[in-house]
Design goal:
The complex is a heterodimer of chains A (130) and B (700).
Chain A (H helix, E strand, L loop, with lengths): L1 H11 L19 E5 L5 E7 L5 E8 L6 E9 L6 E2 L3 E7 L1 H4 L4 E9 L9 E7 L2
Parallel strand pairs in A: 4-7
Antiparallel strand pairs in A: 1-2, 2-6, 3-4, 7-8
Chain B lengths: L1 H20 L12 E8 L18 E10 L5 H4 L4 E7 L2 E6 L2 H12 L4 H13 L4 E8 L23 H5 L9 E6 L18 E2 L4 H4 L24 H10 L16 E6 L8 H11 L16 E4 L1 E4 L3 H12 L3 E5 L9 E2 L6 E7 L17 E4 L16 E6 L5 E6 L2 H18 L5 H11 L1 E2 L8 E2 L2 H7 L10 E4 L2 E5 L4 E8 L5 E9 L5 E6 L10 E7 L7 E13 L6 E12 L5 E10 L6 E10 L1 E9 L2 E9 L13 E4 L9 E3 L4 E2 L4 E5 L11 H9 L1
Parallel strand pairs in B: 1-33, 1-34, 6-8, 6-9, 7-8, 9-11, 11-13, 13-14, 20-26
Antiparallel strand pairs in B: 1-29, 2-4, 2-5, 3-4, 10-12, 15-16, 17-18, 19-21, 21-24, 22-25, 23-24, 25-26, 27-28, 27-30, 30-31, 30-32, 31-34
Classes of the chains: A mainly beta (130), B alpha/beta (700).
C-alpha cells in the first residue's frame, strides 16, 4: 500500500523509496494546524479568514491493524454571503482514546458550500504522534 | 506560489529529505556534486532581569521630590542637609535632594549615560521610607502626550503605533460626531459604552432566523449572538465598536480611538452573515436616506464603519455606498482577510475608504488583502505572534462578550480590527474641525498617513496625529515630539538602528539628553543634529548595541529622549522608545530543526537535512547540485509544512538581517557556514532591516 510506504518513511526514518506525489497534501483552503496535547489527544485548528465558517469532525477511521488513523473533517464555508472580516480560529479536539495507539494521523478535509454537497476530501496534513 | 512552496517543502520534510539525508537523490546526474557544513545556533530565550524603580523616563523636575505627609507631620521637620525644603502647603511638600547617595547616584548615572533624573528617582525612594512620609515621588511633569489610565491600555500597542497618544493631546473627540457601526449589533451593557450610544440605533436584519431575536427589522440593535462556532457567538460588533469609541481615560478596561463620539449601532450581520439587502438599507439608514425600514435616525452619521465584506461587486451595494457618500458620509470598510489582491466589497468601491491591516512591526498582516483598492493601512494585529514579548498575542484588544452574558475584553485580529482605527481617527478629525466634508476628511487621512516601506502599492499607515493636525482648527499650542519607529527589537544580530525625530507641534525643541531605564550600558546613542540649537530639524538618533560581556538572555529597556522647549523655559518634552535585544544561545531544545538550501529567487527548497535536540546543530549536506542557494534553517512546530512561521525558530546564513546567496561549485566542500536562528515569536525588526524574514513571511 502506497500510504504504508510513506508511513514507514515517516515513522522509521528509513531510506524508503520516495512515494508518488499523490500523497503530498493538496488542501488549498484556510491554514490548518495540528497540536499534540499532553494527554495524547490532538487539536486540529482551521484558521478561517472571516466569520461564518464552521469546522467539524465527522469520522475517525482506524483501519484494522493499521499504524495510522484517518481524521475526516468537513469545512462549511459561508459561500458568497457578507461576513465579518475577523480571523477566526476553529479548533476541534480529538480525544486520545479515539486515536488509540496510532503512530501517525492523517487529516482529511472536505469543503461544503451552503446547501451543496461536500467536495472531495483533500489531505491537509500528516502528523507523527509523539 | 504559497501553496506550491507548501507542497514542495512538505514533500521534502517527510519523504524526499530522508533520501537526501541518506545520501540518495539531489545528485546532478553526472555533474560533480558538492558538500556544505556548518552549525546552527539557537537563540537566547531566557529573559534578562532588571531592578525597577520610579520611571526615570517620564519628564520631571530634576532633583525635586514631591511627598505626601502623614497626618501631624511637618514638612520643616523633614528638611535637612540632604533634603532642602523647596515649598509646602497642606499635606504636599516639595524637596530638593542633595544627599551623598544622590551624588553617588549621579556619578553612577553619569557612568551609565544617565542623567539627573536617575538621582531624583533614588532620592524619592529614600524619602518614601522616612518617618512622617506617606509616599514620595519624583516631581513628574505633565506633557502633551496623553496616556489614558484605562487598566488594559498597556496592552493596546496598536494605538501608539499610529501616534494616538500625541493626537489625544490635540483632541479626544466630540459628542457632536456620530460614527455608525454596521455590524452584528452591540452588547450595550458593556460599561465601555456607557453614555456613548445614540438612541436611534437600528436592527436592519430582515430575516428573523438570521437575527435570532424573533422578528425582522426593529429599532433594537442589541446583539443576540450569531453562534458562528461551537465556541459561541462572535460579538464582532462589540469589539469593533470598542475600538472606535470605548470610553477612554476612565480608569478601567480599554480605551477607544475616540473618547467622546457617539456610536450609532446598525445591526446587519446575524447568524450566517448578512445580505446585500440588509447591508444596503443599513447604509441608507445611517446616512439618513430613505430605506426599506421606513425609519430614519435623528441625525445622519458622519462616518460609517463596515468591518465586513464579501467577494465580488454588487451594483446595489455600490449604489447605496455612493448615495451615502453623496449625502456627506465618510464610508470606511475592511479590505478583507484572504491574503490576496482580489476585489472585495464594499471596501473596493471608489466611494469607500478601504483599510488593510498591519501587524505590530507595521508589516502587512499575513492575512490582509492587498488589492490596489486598499487606500490606507491600520493595525489589525497578528494573533500568531508575540513580537513585543508581553506574553499576549499581538491582536487588537477591545470589548467582548459571550453567550452567557459575561462582559470582558479580548484580542482579535483581522482587517475588521484595522477599519475601526481609521473610522475612529476620522471622527477625531471631524471633531477637530467640524466644517470638514467627508471628502476632505478622506483626503486628510490618506495624505497625512505615513509611508511604510514594504507595504503593498506604496501603502501608508494611518497617522492620527498628522491627521488631526492637518484638520486645521489652529495649530496645537504645545510641542509634540515624535520618534519613528516607536519600538525596536535588535533580535540576535541587528547592531544599529536610526530613529527619526520630529516636532509635530508648536515651538522650538532643542535636544537636551537621553537615558535608558532600566540602565542599559550595552546601548549607545549618537544624536545627529543637522541644525544644533536651532530646533529639531531632521534630527536623528543612531542607536548601536554591543553584546560583549552580556550573559545569554533577552534584555529590554526604554529610551527616553528629552528635548527642551525653548519657548517655555526649561520645560522638557520627551518621547519613549522600547528596545529589546537577544544574546547568546538558549538551553538545549527538543525542536526538530530543518536546514534547507533553497532557490534564492523562488525560495523553493532544493536540499535539506534535519536534526533534533541540543543547543546548537551541526549539519552536513552532501550530493548538492552546483548552483546558487540561500541557506536557511528553522523549525516547524505546528507541523504545517512551513518553516519560519510566527512562533517558530528561523535563521539564514550569515544572518537573518542580511542573508547572502552561496555559490556552490562542482566538487566544493564548504565548511564553517555557521549562523543563528531567531525566535519569530519575539523578534521585531523595522524597515529594511527586516531582511529575509519579511520575504519568507510573505511567501509562507
Amino acid at each position: 500500500m502506497i500510504r504504508a510506504a510513506v508511513l514507514s518513511a515517516i515513522l522509521l526514518g528509513a531510506c524508503a523509496a520516495p512515494a508518488p506525489s499523490i500523497w503530498v497534501p493538496d488542501w488549498s483552503g484556510p491554514a490548518v494546524n495540528g497540536r499534540h496535547l499532553g494527554d495524547g489527544g490532538l487539536e486540529v485548528e482551521l484558521v478561517a479568514p472571516t466569520g461564518g465558517h464552521s469546522f467539524e469532525l465527522w469520522l475517525v477511521d482506524r483501519p484494522k491493524d493499521a499504524d495510522f488513523v484517518d481524521l475526516h473533517f468537513v469545512h462549511h464555508t459561508p459561500g458568497d454571503t457578507f461576513q465579518a472580516h475577523v480571523v477566526t480560529p476553529l479548533r476541534v479536539t480529538v480525544d486520545a482514546a479515539r486515536l488509540g495507539d496510532a503512530r501517525a494521523v492523517f487529516v482529511w478535509i472536505a469543503s461544503a458550500e451552503p446547501g451543496a454537497e461536500p467536495s472531495p476530501e483533500k489531505l491537509a496534513m500528516a502528523l507523527a504522534r509523539p | 506560489m504559497k501553496h506550491s512552496f507548501l507542497r514542495r517543502s512538505w514533500l521534502f520534510s517527510w519523504v524526499g529529505l530522508l533520501a537526501v539525508a541518506c545520501g540518495g537523490g539531489g545528485g546532478g546526474g553526472g555533474t560533480a556534486t558538492a558538500t556544505i557544513a556548518g552549525q546552527v545556533r539557537l537563540p537566547a530565550l531566557a529573559p534578562g532581569s532588571f531592578g525597577s524603580t520610579f520611571p526615570v523616563t517620564e519628564p520631571m523636575e530634576p532633583g525635586e521630590v514631591v511627598v505626601w505627609l502623614e497626618n501631624g507631620a511637618a514638612a520643616q521637620d523633614l528638611a535637612s542637609d540632604d533634603y532642602e525644603l523647596v515649598r509646602s502647603g497642606g499635606p504636599v511638600a516639595v524637596f530638593r535632594a542633595r544627599t551623598a547617595a544622590a551624588c553617588e547616584t549621579l556619578e553612577r548615572g553619569a557612568a551609565l549615560a544617565l542623567s539627573a533624573e536617575w538621582a531624583t528617582c533614588e532620592a524619592a525612594e529614600q524619602m518614601g521610607k522616612m518617618h512622617g512620609v506617606r509616599c514620595a515621588s519624583p516631581n513628574y511633569m505633565l506633557q502633551a502626550t496623553v496616556q489614558p489610565n484605562d487598566t488594559f491600555y498597556v496592552r493596546q500597542w496598536h494605538y501608539p503605533q499610529i501616534n494616538l497618544e500625541q493626537a489625544w493631546g490635540v483632541t479626544q473627540g466630540s459628542s457632536n460626531v456620530i460614527v455608525a457601526v454596521l455590524d452584528t449589533g452591540i452588547v450595550s451593557a458593556h460599561p465601555e459604552f456607557t453614555g456613548r450610544l445614540t438612541s436611534d440605533g437600528f436592527d436592519m436584519i430582515s430575516n428573523p432566523a438570521t437575527a435570532r431575536d424573533g422578528d425582522g427589522r426593529d429599532p433594537n440593535p442589541e446583539d443576540n449572538g450569531d453562534l458562528l462556532t461551537p465556541q459561541g457567538s462572535s460579538f464582532h460588533g462589540t469589539h469593533v465598536a470598542g475600538t472606535i469609541g470605548a470610553n477612554g481615560n476612565n480608569g478601567a478596561g480599554v480605551a477607544g480611538v475616540d473618547w467622546n463620539c457617539k456610536l450609532m449601532i446598525v445591526r446587519v450581520l446575524g447568524r450566517g452573515g448578512g445580505s446585500i439587502d440588509d447591508i444596503a438599507n443599513g447604509i441608507l439608514y445611517a446616512a439618513r436616506l430613505t430605506n426599506a425600514s421606513g425609519e430614519l435616525p435623528a441625525q445622519r452619521a458622519d462616518v460609517i464603519n463596515m468591518s465586513l465584506g464579501g467577494p465580488g461587486g454588487s451594483a446595489v451595494l455600490e449604489q447605496a455606498c455612493n448615495a451615502a457618500a453623496n449625502a456627506g458620509v465618510l464610508l470606511v470598510a475592511a479590505a478583507g482577510n484572504d491574503n490576496s489582491a482580489a476585489f472585495n466589497s464594499p471596501g473596493g468601491f471608489d466611494s469607500v475608504l478601504s483599510v488593510g491591516a498591519v501587524d505590530l512591526v507595521r508589516a502587512r498582516a499575513p492575512y490582509s488583502n492587498f488589492s490596489p483598492t486598499v487606500d490606507i493601512w491600520a493595525p489589525g494585529g497578528d494573533m500568531t505572534a508575540d513580537r513585543n514579548g508581553d506574553s499576549f498575542p499581538d491582536g487588537v484588544l477591545s470589548c467582548m462578550a459571550n453567550d452567557q452574558g459575561q462582559l470582558f475584553f479580548a484580542f482579535e485580529n483581522g482587517t475588521s480590527m484595522a477599519s475601526p482605527h481609521v473610522a475612529g481617527v476620522a471622527a477625531l478629525v471631524k471633531a477637530r474641525n467640524p466644517s470638514l466634508t467627508a471628502g476632505q476628511i478622506r483626503t486628510i487621512l490618506i495624505n497625512s498617513a505615513t509611508p511604510v516601506a514594504g507595504l503593498p502599492n506604496n501603502g501608508r499607515l494611518v497617522d492620527a496625529l498628522a491627521a488631526v493636525q492637518a484638520a486645521g482648527g489652529g495649530a496645537p499650542a504645545v510641542p509634540i515630539l515624535v520618534a519613528t519607529p516607536a519600538a525596536v527589537d535588535f533580535g540576535g544580530n541587528l547592531t544599529q538602528v536610526s530613529l527619526a525625530l520630529e516636532n509635530r507641534g508648536a515651538g522650538n525643541l532643542v535636544f537636551d539628553s537621553f537615558a535608558f531605564q532600566p540602565a542599559a550600558p550595552w546601548f549607545d546613542g549618537t544624536l545627529v543634529d543637522a541644525t544644533p540649537s536651532n530646533g529639531i530639524v531632521e534630527d536623528r538618533l543612531d542607536v548601536t548595541v554591543n553584546r560583549t560581556g552580556l550573559q545569554n538572555g533577552v534584555y529590554q529597556t526604554r529610551l527616553t529622549l528629552n528635548y527642551v522647549d525653548v519657548a517655555n523655559g526649561s520645560a522638557l518634552v520627551s518621547v519613549d522608545i522600547d528596545f529589546r535585544i537577544q544574546v547568546g544561545a538558549s538551553p538545549a531544545s527538543n525542536d526538530t530543526v530543518f536546514i534547507v538550501l533553497c532557490d534564492p529567487e523562488t525560495l523553493e527548497a532544493r536540499f535539506q537535512v534535519q536534526t533534533t535536540a541540543g543547543s546548537s546543530f551541526e549539519f552536513a549536506m552532501g550530493s548538492i547540485t552546483p548552483g546558487t542557494y540561500l541557506l536557511v534553517a528553522g523549525t516547524d512546530r505546528d507541523n504545517d509544512g512551513f518553516i519560519g512561521d510566527p512562533g517558530e525558530l528561523f535563521g539564514a546564513w550569515p544572518s537573518l538581517d542580511a542573508p547572502q546567496a552561496i555559490v556552490i561549485g562542482p566538487g566544493d566542500n564548504l565548511t564553517g557556514r555557521d549562523f543563528a536562528m531567531e525566535d519569530l515569536a519575539t523578534m521585531m525588526s523595522v524597515g529594511p532591516e527586516a531582511g529575509l524574514r519579511a520575504v519568507i513571511r510573505r511567501l509562507l
